[in-house]
């Protein structure tokens, strides 16, 4: 039934914005084990080759993470599990996780981040400490993504500003010169294109040239997005949602990321050297809703794997 529905959409929902279609090529998306369990067949939702991040939330057993990675890899999707430093007890645990992912799911890429946990479970508190162990390089990982924060991060800069965030990015840029893995920044989501563009340009001017995979919240109820935005510390662009909430005509309508993505796509088309390389979706309104939106707007030729 899902395949039939997608074929119907293909007939009527040809992409109308060539810039957006180009900008969405090679997009990635995020799942958690508990949300993945609700998806009967990912190939009805995602195009071939879609990179799927697996978010590791505190309390999720590593066995569930690896099982999800194995399922997605079996369906042919490149899998990028999260390695949150603050929930990894020690170097032995890190090595064990890497071995499990590789042995059972053939994983060779990772998103390495601090993780949104107040108190570290062990000796690690930052992504830089995980990278310094050398475990990913010894395991032959081909791709390592690290976190970027276009609007800052109160965990890293509790007094505001961007100093500590920028210092961390400079460290990661330097680390990029020492690893054989391809690196990129995977960012927190934001809703306003102008601050994103300024942030990316400022990084380039500062010599931070890691490709940027920009985080974008997928379609969702406005109240849901505001809740997640506040919880995740999204700053200036939260005003975009608050302004929308004051418009009675839009209050009850689902938010869709057309505005921010159209502006970024237009900027990329006019400035090919602009360092945002890919789009990474946070499916806050559900993976099916997000995947459908991406396909209907031309992401990866506008069709899921099972529609080819």
TrEMBL record:
Pathway annotation from the record: Amino-acid biosynthesis; L-methionine biosynthesis via de novo pathway
InterPro entries per record: FAD-linked_oxidoreductase-like
Major enzyme class: oxidoreductase
One example GO MF annotation: methylenetetrahydrofolate reductase (NADH) activity
Signal peptide annotation: none
EC number: 1.5.1.54
Protein name: methylenetetrahydrofolate reductase (NADH)
């Amino acid at each position: 039934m899902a395949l039939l529905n997608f074929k119907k959409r293909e007939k009527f929902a040809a992409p109308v914005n060539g810039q957006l279609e180009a900008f969405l090529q090679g997009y990635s998306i995020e799942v958690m084990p508990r949300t993945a369990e609700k998806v009967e067949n990912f190939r009805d939702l995602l195009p071939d080759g879609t990179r799927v991040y697996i978010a590791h939330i505190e309390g999720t057993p590593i066995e569930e993470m690896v099982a999800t990675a194995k399922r997605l890899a079996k369906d042919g999707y490149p899998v990028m599990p999260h390695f949150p430093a603050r929930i990894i007890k020690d170097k032995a645990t890190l090595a064990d996780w890497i071995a499990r992912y590789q042995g059972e799911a053939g994983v060779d890429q990772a998103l390495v981040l601090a993780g949104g946990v107040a108190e570290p479970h062990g000796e690690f508190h930052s992504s830089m400490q995980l990278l310094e162990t050398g475990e990913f390089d010894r395991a032959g990982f081909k791709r390592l993504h690290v976190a970027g924060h276009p609007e800052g991060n109160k965990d890293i800069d509790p007094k505001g500003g961007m100093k500590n965030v920028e210092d961390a990015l400079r460290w990661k840029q330097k680390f990029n010169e020492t690893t054989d893995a391809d690196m990129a920044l995977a960012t927190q989501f934001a809703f306003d294109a102008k601050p994103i563009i300024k942030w990316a340009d400022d990084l380039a001017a500062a010599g931070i040239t890691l490709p940027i995979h920009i985080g974008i919240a997928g379609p969702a109820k406005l109240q849901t997005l505001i809740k997640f935005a506040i919880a995740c510390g999204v700053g200036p662009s939260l005003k975009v949602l608050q302004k929308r909430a004051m418009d009675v005509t839009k209050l009850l309508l689902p938010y869709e990321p057309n505005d921010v993505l159209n502006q970024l796509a237009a900027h990329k088309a006019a400035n090919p050297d602009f360092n945002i390389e890919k789009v990474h979706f946070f499916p806050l309104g559900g993976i099916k809703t997000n995947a459908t939106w991406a396909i209907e707007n031309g992401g990866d030729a506008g069709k899921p794997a099972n529609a080819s």
